[in-house]
Each structure stands twice: as C-alpha cells, then as structure tokens.
Amino acid sequence: MSATNLSPKHLLLALVIVVIWGTNFIAIYIGLKELPPFLFSAIRFGLSALPFVFFIPRPKTPWKLLLGFGIFNFVLQFGFLFTGMNLGLSPGLASLVVQVQVFFSMGLAFLLFREKPGIIKIIGSVISFIGIGIVALNVNGSATLIGFIFAIMAALSWAFGNIFTKKINAISPFALVVWGNLISLPFMLAISFFIEGSGEISNAVQNISWSTIGAVAFVVYLSTHLGYGLWGYLLKTYPTSAVVPYTLLIPVVGFISSAVFLGENLDSWKLWASLFILSGLVFSLFEKKINKWNENLKAQFKVKNKY
Question: Kind and range of the H or E element at 33?
C-alpha cells in the first residue's frame, strides 16, 4: 500500500499500540523495583518466545535478517531502555526520549529504501523534535543524564529494528516477534549472568512479588506480543514515514499515566514538550489535505495564466 495516511481501521490499531506502549513504562518501572534490568529483559524474551516457538513456524527470511531484528529490536533497545530507567530516568521522561527513534527511522528509511518523507512530514517532525529538545534541556542530575543517554541509544536501536522489520516483511508479524525474542534470549541471559551475577539473579527470582509478575505479564503479552505484532503489520502495510510519527503520542500517554499511577510531577515543561510533539504529529496528519489544497491552488493558477 502506497498511501501516506492510515485508514480509519489502521489508525485505531496505531492508537491501541500507543496506549499499550505508553502505559508499558509503568509496568517496566514496577518490574525494575525488584528485578535487575538485564534479568528483566531476559525473562521478557523467554516468556515472549516460549512455548509459542514450538507451534509457530520460523518466518521465511534469512537468519542474518532475523538475527538483526532480534538484536536491535529487543536486545539493544530494551537493554539500553531498562538500564536507563534503572539509572534514574522516570517512566514519563523515558517514554518521551525514546521517540527520537521517529527521526532516526525516517532518516534510515530514506537512506536504505529511498522512502522520501514529504515536506509536511519533515516540518511536522521538526516541530515535534522541539519537544524532545525541551526534555533534553530539563534533565537534571548525573543519574538522569546517564539515563537520558541510554534512552537515546535505545531509540537508535529501535530505529534500526524498524528497518529490519520493514526489510523482512514477514507474512506473520506475530511469528516474527516470537522468533525474534527467541534469538534475543541467549544474548540477554549471558549479559545478565556476567554483569548482574548469579547471586543477584537468584535473590531477585526468589523474592519476586505478584505486582512484579503482573508487570512482567503486561510487558510480555500486551507490549511485546500484541504491540509489536500490530506494529509489524502496520510497517508492512505502509511506508515507514506514515507509521512511525504515531509513536510520538506515546510520551503523552506516558506522562499522564505516570502522573495518575505513580504521582510523577506533571511540570509545565513536560506539558510544553507534549504540546510541541502533538502539534508536530497533527501537522503531519494533514499532509494529504495540504498537498491536495496546494495542487488545487496550482491548477487554478495555471487556468488563470492560460486565459
């Protein structure tokens, strides 16, 4: 499909993903209270892959592409993100910072697939990027700054993951998610063992609470299975530049949910950042109408010159 705007049905799917991924940061925050970040990621990958991998055929794609999909979408993205949050980046801020992936994704799609975004989407992205800049100017404290840097690295990893998702073009996005998590599991288990150590892993598993189990379940079955399954379907159906801007709504959901469930302060600069992000997205959504209006204007101008 070459359309630059999502159909109403697919727009609804995009909004479902936004809500799931926006509240997902709350689940991550809860889980990180008891689980070290790399172990949390390993558990996520394991439960996302098993037992489904025994019933779902491997996507018909070269192993190197499947490996790249798993490494960038899961190992690096969530390794960096969970570490950043563990180092002091709040759920609301984390949900906003990782949206830099929108600009990384559009740039990579242009370089690799020649998917040139329209001038309207570029302007909209610049407007949204001002909101990201507001966040960068307001991070404070060494722990938060380190967390911010890790979140940026997670965003870059997500962007590369989007490219692999697009390149694979899997018939079943769910199968791609399951097998991508299976490939990621041994990498994250090894990282957890060597960095966090067997003692910390054993202690975390033995003292896990029901709230953490619930958080893990949300991250696995809603954020990973449902969220990435739908995301892969949209990337398969539309150009990258038509899909990724919707993730700019995630931090708005992240800020609101963090304020409601965690009591995170909703400072004025966060509201300004969200306003710029939303404005940029709304501007991008009107690309088709603006282009049509521009074409009609040119046609009228030609008619006048003709006579």
Answer: none
CA distance 268 to 266: 7
145 vs 23: CA distance, rounded Å: 23
pTM of the predicted structure, to 2 decimals? 0.73
Query: At 2, is the pLDDT very low, low, confident or very high (cuts 50, 70, 90)?
Result: very low
The DSSP element (H or E) to which 60 belongs, if any, is: none
Rounded Cα gap, residues 109 and 240, in angstroms = 7
Task: Tell me the Cα Rg of the chain.
Answer: 20
Name the residue among 168, 305, 235, 183 with its Cα closest to residue 14. Answer: 235
CB of 71 closer than 8 Å to CB of 123? no
Cis amide bond preceding 51, omega within 30 = yes
307 — pLDDT class (breaks 50, 70, 90): low
**Helix %, strand %, coil % for the chain, to 5?**
85, 0, 15
- Which phi and psi angles does 123 have, rounded to 5°? -65, -45
- Cα-Cα-Cα-Cα torsion 7, 113, 95, 52, nearest 10 degrees, comes to 80
Picking from 173, 167, 170, 51, the residue whose alpha carbon sits closest to that of residue 109 is 167
Q: What is the pLDDT of residues 131-159, one digit of tens each?
A: 878 877 776 665 578 888 898 899 899 88
